[in-house]
Write a sequence for this structure.
């Protein structure tokens, strides 16, 4: 007898994996082809940006001033030592 309330998590994982693999085996639709093309173009663009902006192994300097400019001013006023 099968008890209710106890699922079979391994069966759910295997069925999800089978559905994922089956989706990869289906012929791609025009929309899927367009999405892949856009993602490949973006990947090439990001790789190009990395090569031209950071061609050597240096990283941009990030100090407290740069972080303050990126984050912006605090929304809350600073609390002084006398509580005002």
């Amino acid at each position: 007898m099968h008890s209710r309330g106890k699922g079979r998590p391994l069966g759910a994982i295997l069925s999800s994996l089978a559905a994922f693999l089956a989706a990869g085996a289906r012929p791609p639709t025009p929309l899927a082809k367009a999405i892949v093309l856009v993602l490949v173009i973006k990947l090439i663009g990001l790789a190009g940006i990395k090569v031209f902006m950071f061609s050597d192994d240096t990283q941009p300097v990030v100090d407290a001033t740069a972080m303050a400019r990126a984050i912006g001013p605090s929304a809350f006023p600073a609390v002084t030592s006398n509580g005002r």
